[in-house]
Structures are given as structure tokens and as C-alpha cells.
């Protein structure tokens, strides 16, 4: 009797173990949810994922517990008896041949839209025949067979799709991206009064500093608030994201928050907003709203002794950053590195207008009294400050630039005949600095040689006047930067009217931090990546080397809405970015150290362009990326 009971116990335990660890088919949603974990990458928020293995020898399919077994290798070695090391497993499991022990994939579930996608690892070079077979095997063994799609997440499978080699239903990244309803931007917590602002109707947007705000489109600037919930999905390198990270306030995307009654019931009340990696909470709170911390005043270095235009095509003097600003200095350093690497170009005919001329312009036009009046406006008089700043910007734009400066600039521009269009860009000592990136605070303008409208004088005045942009004034105030110690230089170089693609990358893998790599946002032509029009998406992907195989991995998160689902960059163009950017990071840090521009090594935030029919890579800007 004891033996029978023992046998039944062991049989029942084994059955329970297998059911708890894996199944051969998924017949209902709860079964899937019981096995599900989070995807290996953090590309998408709030996605459930179950890993699946097809054992070729046994001709069996396994949907397994994706929390208990983080990686496919774990399941294959611990349950299916695979005995080789992980390096051999990767060689066998991700190659393009039919010689495979296992076929591996993830099944991802988007609960809000009730969509299901099957995804291979971006490193997987599985051939079309095996993909078709594997998909059909999975599809025969799931209850959602009519809804399952194959996700085109890498250049390899996108290429197979373009050759019409895949005979299964497929989707690009935008299919998933457009169905995601939540996105974590900055994980933090704060207490404040909940308010709602309808920016689509151009509602007055002057929140108080004790508010947590809900907004229905991306604003031109981030106000001084306790937290933000926004209804528009963001790219990780947009100005809103970079500024939010700089401030370390809770910011979260919920595309459905506007109409949530539970949230609307809290309007006008004190709430606590807590944002996490895959969720957020918003609840009434009795906690006190934290008093605004006194910030230590920051006095910036400003050297007015440089009175000539600074040619950035030659060497960059050690302390020139205090005379022309970080942006212009960094371009000069990029040009130094360019001479050694030769893998990219930088904007030609670059030079800088030093701080001296900005300071002289204020003195020559007797602006200081007006500027002092701006400083005297109480910080809580937001509307008045915005109005007076706008009026002063107009005053600056209507003033006249020193004729001697104009003569120097025009002589420099006319000394070349290659380009007529030149870009005039802000280069202050209050941006691209440690602890303060200043993304999107100031303006850039184009001048055209010989044009009566887009003149050099107008471009300079427009850039100088942007020093008094409301968003710039407010951000400097928030961080305790003394306005009087700030100065505006101007970086000048040829402009890019014929760009085929423009983008931003960071030299960090933001979605799989265990793999060193880069994260890239790139868009067709001149369309903005950092401040896109509503509803416009760009190509977004990360890439890294896959361990043991040395293969180059590209994994898409979204595809451009302007390019018919096709990748904007070729694999060769992506590889060039991947190979060039970490070298730039190392070399730029060494140059920063010599100039005391950085206390430690940072990932880089790089702006790039691909130009002309030959798709020449240009690096337009590089600065420290501070998360």
C-alpha cells in the first residue's frame, strides 16, 4: 500500500512539476499568463512573454516557465538534458543552417490590444524554411492561432520578408509600438496637486511648481513641476526625456490616462505619483508636498579675452571652452579625432563667435538695465516673466550687430565657394555640461550668403536672443545657474540641405544593459528625431555584438512612419555607427580630461547625418549623456 501511495505521489508531483514548468500546447490565456515573464529586452513596457523551444530530435514543442528559466539555454540544459557549454549552444541555435538541435523563440502578448507576436532573438540567423516551419508548429499548438504574427525585428528577417521568402503573417515594429499604451520614462516618486492641461487646445500652460500634471501632447518645454503623465509615446533621446532624466522627476506615458475616471476623480487633490519600470501608481496622499530644496548657486566660467573668430578646423586650445562654449569646443575636438579615424566627416568650414561679442552687444545696446529687470521678476510670476522675456527677445532681434564682426564673418564665409547655406547654432557655457545637458533650450538658424532675408546678421541675433528663451531661463533657474555668469557663443558651419537621414545615438544599450552597445533613433531626411511631429515615428533600434559568435546584432523597437516600413539605414551604415561611436567615446573623454571638461567617463549623445547619394556619415555633435 505504501509503495502504491509513493508511486501516486511521485507521479502526481512529476505531473505538477511539468505543468508548472512547461506545456506542449497553450489552450487558454491563463495557462499562458502562468508561464509568462517579462521579455529579455526592455524595448516595450507591459508586455507578457513566454519562451518556446522546438526540440528537433524529439519533435516536441515546449512552452516553458519564463520566470523560472530566464534563458532558453537554462531550460534546454536543465530540463531537456543539453550537455554542452553555452558557447556551443549559441553556435548550434542561432546559425543559418538546418543543423540545429533546437529552434528558439518568444511569444509576446500585448494585453491591451489582444495581439500576439512570435519573435526570434535579433541575433538568430534562422533561414526562411525553418522560420516558416517553426511558426506553423507553434501556430498549431496555441489557442490564438488566428491572431499570431511573426515579428520582423532584425535586418536579417526584414531581408527575408523583402525577398518574399516568409510564407507566414508578419508585422514590423510599428505594429507593436502603436499598440503599446504605457511607457516608463523616468522612475521616481513625488507628491503634488494633480492638474490636467489640454495642450491640443492650446490651453494656457503655466503649471505651479507643486503640481503633478497630465498633458495630452509633448510640450515645447518642461515646466517646473513635481511629475508628469503624458499621453504620447516618446523616443528615449527626445528633449523631453533627456530633460526629465536631468531633473529626476517621475515621468510616465499612459496613452489612455486622459479618459480614466479613477484619475479624473483625483484632479485638484494631493496625490503621490510613483513610476516604475513597467507600471505606475497614482493615489490620493496625505504626505506633505516636499519643500523646494535650496540649490547651490553655480557660477560658470566665462572668458571674454578671446576677441577673434575661432577657427575650429585647426587645433583646439586647452581652455577655449570658457570662451566659445561646449558645443563649439566639442566640434573642434571631433575634428581632431576625425583626422585620425577618417571614418566620418564633420561639418565643413566651422568656426565660433566667442562670448566676447555677445557681451559687447549687451553693452553697446545698453541692455543691462532691461536684463536686470528680468532677474527682478518674482519666480512665481510665470506669465509676467514669459511675457517680458518674449518682449526682450524681440528687442534683441531688432538691434544691430557690430559691423566689424559682420565684416569678419562675411570675409570668412566668402573665402570659400563650396557652400552658400550656413548654420548658426548656440554654444553657451550653460549646456552640454556635467549635470546639465540643456537639450533643446536654445535656437539655431540658417543664413544664406547673398540672401536678403536669411542674412548673417539675422541668424546671429536670433541665436543670441534665444539665450532669453523662457524654457532656457527657467531651466537655468531650476538648477541654480547664475544667469550673469552665462554667455552665448555661436557655432557656425555649413548647413545640410541634402541629408538622406538624420539621427541621434547614445553609446549605451538602453534595452539590454548586459550587452555593451548603442541605441539609435534615426529619421528620413530632415524630419526631427528629438522633436517629432505628433504621430510621426522614427526608426529606433539597439545593436551590440553577440557573445561567443562575434555576430553583429540589430534589434528594432520602432520603424519610421515615413519610409513604408523599410529600414532607413543599411546594415553597413549601422555597423559604421557601431564601430565608430565607442572609439569616439574613448578619445573624446581623454581630450575632455586634458581640458578638465569632465570628472569621469560618460556615454556619448551623438547627433549624426548620412548625406548625399553616397550616404556619407557626418558627426554633427557629441556631448556627455547623463542618465
Secondary-structure map with pairings?
Elements (H helix, E strand, L loop, with lengths): L1 H20 E2 L5 H7 L12 E8 L4 E5 L7 H7 L7 H8 L8 E9 L4 E5 L8 H13 L7 E4 L3 H8 L7 E2 L1 H5 L4 E5 L2 E9 L13 E5 L11 E4 L8 H9 L3 E4 L6 H4 L5 E6 L4 E5 L25 E2 L9 H4 L1 H16 L9 E3 L1 H10 L3 H9 L5 H16 L5 H12 L6 E8 L15 E5 L7 H10 L4 H9 L9 E7 L4 E8 L10 E8 L14 E8 L4 E8 L12 H24 L9 E8 L4 E9 L3
Parallel strand pairs: 5-6, 6-7, 9-10, 10-11, 11-12
Antiparallel strand pairs: 1-3, 2-3, 2-4, 4-5, 8-12, 9-13, 13-14, 15-16, 16-19, 17-18, 17-19, 20-21, 20-24, 21-22, 22-23, 24-25
Helix pairs in contact: 11-18, 14-16
**Sheet having the most strands:** 7 strands, mixed
Rg:
28 Å
Give the proportion of residues in helices: 25-40%
Strand content: 15-25%
Structural class: alpha+beta
Number of helices: 18
**Biggest sheet: strand arrangement:** 1-3-2-4-5-6-7
- Provide the residue-averaged pLDDT: 91
Spans of at least 5 consecutive residues whose pLDDT stays below 50 are: 5-17
Strand tally is: 25
Shape: globular
Fold and architecture overview:
A seven-stranded mixed β-sheet has the order 1-3-2-4-5-6-7, sandwiched between helices. Strands 8-12-11-10-9-13-14 form a seven-stranded mixed β-sheet, with helices on one face. Strands 23-22-21-20-24-25 form a six-stranded antiparallel β-sheet. The longest helix is centred in the last third of the chain and has 24 residues, at 571-594. The chain has 627 residues and is of the alpha+beta class. The radius of gyration is 28 Å and the shape is globular. Residues 5-17 have low confidence and may be disordered.
Amino acid at each position: 500500500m505504501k509503495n502504491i501511495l509513493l508511486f501516486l505521489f511521485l507521479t502526481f508531483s512529476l505531473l505538477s512539476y511539468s505543468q508548472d514548468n512547461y506545456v506542449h500546447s497553450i489552450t487558454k490565456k491563463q495557462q499562458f499568463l502562468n508561464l509568462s515573464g517579462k521579455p529579455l529586452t526592455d524595448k516595450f513596457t507591459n508586455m507578457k512573454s513566454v519562451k518556446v523551444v522546438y526540440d528537433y530530435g524529439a519533435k516536441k514543442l515546449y512552452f516553458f516557465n519564463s520566470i523560472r528559466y530566464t534563458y532558453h539555454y537554462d531550460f534546454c540544459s536543465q530540463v531537456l538534458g543539453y550537455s554542452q557549454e553555452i558557447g556551443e549552444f549559441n553556435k548550434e541555435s542561432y546559425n543559418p543552417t538546418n543543423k540545429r538541435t533546437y529552434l528558439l523563440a518568444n511569444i509576446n502578448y500585448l494585453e491591451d490590444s489582444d495581439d500576439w507576436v512570435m519573435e526570434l532573438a535579433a541575433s538568430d540567423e534562422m533561414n526562411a524554411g525553418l522560420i516558416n516551419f517553426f511558426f506553423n508548429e507553434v501556430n498549431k499548438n496555441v489557442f490564438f492561432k488566428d491572431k499570431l504574427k511573426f515579428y520582423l525585428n532584425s535586418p536579417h528577417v526584414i531581408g527575408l520578408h523583402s525577398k518574399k521568402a516568409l510564407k507566414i503573417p508578419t508585422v514590423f515594429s510599428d505594429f507593436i509600438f502603436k499598440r503599446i499604451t504605457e511607457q516608463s520614462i523616468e522612475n521616481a516618486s513625488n507628491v503634488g496637486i494633480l492638474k490636467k492641461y489640454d495642450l491640443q487646445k492650446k490651453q494656457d500652460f503655466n503649471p505651479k511648481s507643486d503640481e503633478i500634471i497630465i498633458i495630452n501632447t509633448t510640450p515645447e518645454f518642461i515646466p517646473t513641476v513635481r511629475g508628469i503623465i503624458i499621453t504620447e509615446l516618446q523616443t528615449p533621446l527626445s528633449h523631453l526625456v533627456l530633460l526629465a532624466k536631468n531633473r529626476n522627476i517621475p515621468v510616465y506615458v499612459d496613452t489612455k490616462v486622459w479618459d480614466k475616471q479613477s484619475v479624473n476623480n483625483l484632479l485638484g487633490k494631493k496625490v503621490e505619483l510613483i513610476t516604475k519600470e513597467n507600471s505606475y501608481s497614482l493615489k490620493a496622499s496625505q504626505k506633505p508636498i516636499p519643500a523646494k530644496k535650496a540649490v547651490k548657486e553655480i557660477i560658470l566660467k566665462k572668458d571674454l579675452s578671446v576677441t577673434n573668430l575661432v577657427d575650429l578646423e585647426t587645433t583646439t586650445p586647452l581652455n577655449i571652452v570658457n570662451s566659445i562654449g561646449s558645443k563649439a569646443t566639442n566640434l573642434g575636438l571631433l575634428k581632431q579625432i576625425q583626422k585620425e579615424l577618417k571614418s566620418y566627416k564633420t561639418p565643413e568650414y566651422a568656426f565660433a563667435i566667442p562670448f566676447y561679442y555677445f557681451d559687447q552687444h549687451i553693452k553697446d545696446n545698453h541692455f543691462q538695465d532691461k536684463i536686470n529687470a528680468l532677474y527682478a521678476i518674482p519666480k512665481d510670476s510665470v506669465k509676467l516673466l514669459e511675457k517680458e522675456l518674449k518682449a526682450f527677445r524681440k528687442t534683441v532681434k531688432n538691434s544691430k550687430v557690430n559691423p566689424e564682426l559682420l565684416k569678419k564673418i562675411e570675409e570668412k564665409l566668402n573665402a570659400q565657394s563650396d557652400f552658400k547655406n550656413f548654420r548658426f547654432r548656440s554654444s553657451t557655457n550653460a549646456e552640454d555640461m556635467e549635470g546639465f545637458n540643456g537639450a533643446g533650450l536654445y535656437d539655431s538658424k540658417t543664413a544664406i550668403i547673398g540672401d536678403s532675408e536669411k542674412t548673417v546678421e539675422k541668424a546671429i541675433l536670433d541665436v543670441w536672443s534665444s539665450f532669453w528663451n523662457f524654457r532656457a531661463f527657467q531651466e537655468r533657474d531650476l538648477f541654480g545657474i547664475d544667469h550673469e555668469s552665462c554667455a552665448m557663443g555661436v557655432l557656425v558651419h555649413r548647413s545640410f540641405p541634402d541629408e538622406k537621414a538624420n539621427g541621434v545615438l547614445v553609446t549605451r544599450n538602453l534595452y539590454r544593459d548586459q550587452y555593451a552597445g548603442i541605441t539609435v533613433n534615426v529619421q528620413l531626411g530632415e524630419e526631427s528625431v528629438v522633436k517629432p511631429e505628433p504621430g510621426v515615428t522614427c526608426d529606433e533600434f539597439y545593436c551590440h555584438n553577440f557573445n561567443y559568435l562575434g555576430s553583429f546584432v540589430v534589434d528594432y523597437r520602432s520603424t519610421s512612419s515615413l519610409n513604408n516600413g523599410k529600414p532607413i539605414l543599411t546594415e553597413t551604415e549601422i555597423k559604421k555607427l557601431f564601430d565608430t561611436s565607442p572609439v569616439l567615446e574613448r578619445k573624446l573623454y581623454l581630450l575632455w580630461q586634458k581640458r578638465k571638461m569632465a570628472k569621469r567617463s560618460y556615454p556619448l549623445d551623438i547627433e549624426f547625418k548620412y548625406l548625399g547619394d553616397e550616404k556619407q556619415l557626418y558627426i554633427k555633435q557629441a556631448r556627455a549623456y547623463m542618465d
